[in-house]
Write a structure and sequence with these properties.
The chain is of the alpha/beta class. The chain contains 15 helices and twelve strands. The strands form two sheets. It has a six-stranded parallel beta sheet with strand order 2-1-3-4-5-6, sandwiched between helices. It has a six-stranded parallel beta sheet with strand order 9-8-7-10-11-12, with helices on both faces. The two termini are 16 Å apart.
């Protein structure tokens, strides 16, 4: 049986267990279905400019050499992120006529493609020459079709999915006891990379406002430190303004994240831009209300009251949304939330993905 090669510039390791975990989860899902998958990925998010160039250079070179040495054993490649990852799949097609699929996650369109005309042009070529393009959100599909000239029939909207065997409601009192959280005190949770674009500073500022009305509230920040300078800026803000109750929890495994999500009163995701917002979906599966920026894929994911949408980069609006979620009232449409979670379950995602792979191979 020929193999599928998955390229990704994000993949978890023992030191960084949540870095690109969504890619690994999809790989494991595909392996369980019987496919033979080989992964060529970067598993370390840390590095300055020089270290990043070296890291990417080694990954890129080893991936190209892998394609050269194994071209007869490969049926297709799947790149996560259009650029730079998709460039590997494009090389495989140009040199060895290997068909490829690209999953667009958001940052590759919202940030990377806007860094310059050359990268934008390469992104366009990668997307147009792909046998199929997957976007994790509806807004990304619209951009891929409108701004990059990809045929709408060649694009499928499909998130990375949620594993409902991991993310589901748990007894809150039991979970909080395990996590060392007071049973009755309100708890706000953030999960994501600790970077400016995730709205972390605005969340801390909002938390300070909320604390004046709810003195017992706590804020827990879970995620990787991609910028030491930014995290230090946030910590200095906390110190200067004497904000108590803010806790940096580091990174967690998926099973640990599932407990934190089930134990929290609300998940906050105040991103500046978000291709989909997978952690919001995981919170929904855990039965936890979500307050998130009205941007990108979040605008579609949290429709019809499935969550609370607030303006991005706006501290006051975020504060109001979080207070609403912490009010104790039923603030979300539970039925709609369940419909959305089911639509993004692993079973539904696998069915779509296998169909795309099958059609991709047929067109070779």
């Amino acid at each position: 049986m020929k193999k599928i090669v998955v390229f990704s510039n994000m993949y978890p390791s023992s030191e960084h267990p949540t870095y690109g975990i969504f890619v690994k989860n999809q790989v494991e899902l595909l392996k369980k279905s019987g496919l033979v998958i080989e992964v060529k990925a970067i598993d370390n998010p840390i590095g300055g400019k020089f270290q990043s160039l070296l890291k990417y250079g080694k990954w890129f070179a080893s991936s190209v050499f892998y394609l050269i040495g194994n071209r007869q054993k490969i049926s297709l490649t799947h790149a996560h992120y259009a650029f730079p990852t998709g460039l590997l799949s494009l090389i495989g097609k140009r040199l060895f006529h290997l068909p490829y699929v690209v999953t667009v996650h958001g940052g590759d369109i919202d940030k990377m493609a806007k860094k310059g005309a050359r990268i934008a042009g390469l992104t366009r070529t990668i997307l147009q020459e792909a046998t199929h393009v997957i976007t994790v959100g509806e807004r990304l599909k619209q951009e891929v079709v409108t701004n990059f000239g990809v045929s709408e029939t060649n694009v499928t909207v499909m998130s990375m999915g949620v594993d409902r065997s991991v993310f589901h409601p748990l007894p809150r009192a039991v979970v909080r006891d395990e996590l060392g959280l007071p049973v009755h005190d309100p708890t706000i949770l953030f999960i994501g990379n600790l970077i400016r674009e995730k709205g972390v500073l605005e969340l801390v500022q909002s938390f300070a406002t909320i604390q004046k009305k709810l003195p017992e509230v706590s804020l827990h920040l879970i995620g990787s430190t991609k910028s030491e300078a930014f995290v230090e800026e946030v910590k200095q803000y906390i110190t200067i303004h004497q904000i108590e109750g803010t806790h940096f929890q580091g990174t967690k495994t998926q099973k640990e994240l599932a407990k934190w999500l089930a134990g929290a009163d609300v998940l906050a995701l105040p991103s500046y831009h978000e291709g989909f917002g997978l952690v919001a979906l995981e919170a929904m599966a855990a039965g936890t209300p979500v307050v998130a920026s009205d941007v990108g894929g979040l605008s579609y994911l949290l429709v019809d009251g499935a969550g609370i949408l607030v303006p991005a980069r706006e501290v006051e609006g975020l504060s109001q949304g979080l207070l609403q979620a912490l009010s104790g009232d039923q603030v979300t449409n539970v039925e709609k939330r369940e419909q959305i979670v089911h639509a993004h379950s692993y079973e539904m995602i696998l069915e779509k993905l296998l169909k795309i792979y099958g059609e991709t191979e047929y067109t070779r």
